[in-house]
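User: Teach me something about this protein's shape.
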Amino acid sequence: MTIPASSPTDIDAAIAAASRHGQSTDAQTPGIADLAAALGVLRRVKGGEAVADADVLVAHDLLHASVLRHRAGGSLERLAEVLVARGVVPDPGDYGGKWWLWWPKAGRGPCRDCGQVRALTRYSARFGKEYRYLCARCRAAERGRDAQEAQQVWGTLGTEPWSAGSVGAGQAPSADVASGVMQAAPKGGEAAPLSPSEAEWGGYVERLHELLASLEWAGFELPETWDSDFDAQAGVLLFSEAWRGDGCVVIEYRPHESVLALQPFEDVTGNWPQSYSLLDDSLEIAVAAAGQDAVTAVAQAAGRAGLLDATHVCVADSAPPEAKQDFAMRRIRRIFNEAAAYRHLPLTDVLREVTENEWLSAYLDWVVGIVGQDVAPDSVPDAAALGVVAWCWRNNTAVEDHHLETDVLMARVNIAVTRVAQQHVCPVEGIDWDGIEAALMDPQWALPDGTLIQSLFGAGWADVASTVTAELRRWRQVDHDLLGAETTLILMSIGGSTSYTDSWWGQGRWRSICQRIVADATSAGLALPQPYSVRGPDALIADLDQPDLVADTVLDWLIEMPDASLDGPRGLRFNSITRPPQRCWDPYWLTDD
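Assistant: First, the predicted structure itself:
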């Protein structure tokens, strides 16, 4: 292979990227030429230059074989994304059969089967087929073909008049042993009612995914296919489990009844010994066949139940010590397995580097090991945004040294920082540290009323800016050089889910917290702040969705509730409603009867 031409700028960038943790690197260091070639190709592609597919592939392959690929700062992954967009993808056995470790799970480019440029997913069907990049239509078509083949096999064995099955978007339910929906059997000589058409089934699944968008954003893995039933009286039923880590919630969608149910999970088969339910009680949500109102209703119900925030989970007190130790070790592996995959290193090597990093080790000891010790190691973007605010703005910086004159003003700035962080956290691409830094350091960054935030800190802004920038850059380096996007998102999700942030705006439970505070106040006979004594509690709750837009008196009331007695009710401060729900993993099968 011929190395694509590199400029002196590319070589300097490669030296800078490879020089981490004090390691000496120069232009003669083995692998620098390969890394410089990769950076050069990426620079030219980003700049809109014409770069041949062969040059991109050569840069990718050279970097993959290079001794510096673990210090390439995500360049290998970005080259793979460029190749997917061009329809250049590996064969199943390429790169030792492990290319899926760094090639993107999703992207946009020409579909392997239809050739159309569409959103693609790395896909492997149930029957042991290799990974390929297919669009949704071709994935659905393949599932349909598999179902037809299975139906032919099932037909030789005889059919049942009524059975459960699975269905994905754009396809009719399969009819094999694992999946299939039949017509209701004829009774009394009457013709059997027809089950929904393929297009109708696809529409039900697409609507279900619309309704569950908030759960998917919060880190839940929705199934590609849904179990399904059809009955002439009850209509269509779609159901399955949705998992986030070891936590599970059961989902049922009954479109003919306009109901979406979120239900507790129970491992009745014993196949999931590490699992725990994310709900204690069932939630039934009225959902229309179309429109945004039902999507909002699902998000609000899921938020009230704590499903949109990181999970807080503990081990049952009755569990034996070895089970508690195993639970703790699984948590560590869940946090750092993605970093090991990102670095293409054994987990033990990554953990050694982590412990050698004094600053990161301190974060792990305090945030992950103590104040966040019960937070499940899941990637939850909104929680990660709060983590950025908590540990790159409020803590470890000079912000507290220059605390603003009122808690209300401090809360407004806190919300402004959270809005910035939310805009730069992506569950796929990770955290855009440069974007956050640029937004926070922008001289024109202001509160909604136009007040420049820099002006609020006066002469202390220089101290605030330098310390906040230092934290952001420290995390950026650790993200790019050591942990990778997924592990960093997990660590920030944990950091945004401790007692420091229990009462902050930006969490999934925010609306339900405000509802409880307002309900407690009205039950106690306290007057709502103006103008809501006239407009009413519903208007106050609705406006508190954006608390940075309400008047100072309203925000102050929410924080402190100044007219309340010592016995309550209470505002955000010292209110038990801000504490998140706690789940429990109970390995009851390990205890003696």
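Now, about its shape. The CA atoms of residues 568 and 576 lie 11 Å apart. Confidence is low (pLDDT under 50) at residues 157-165, 169-193. If you'd like, I can walk through any region in more detail.
User: That's plenty for now, thanks!
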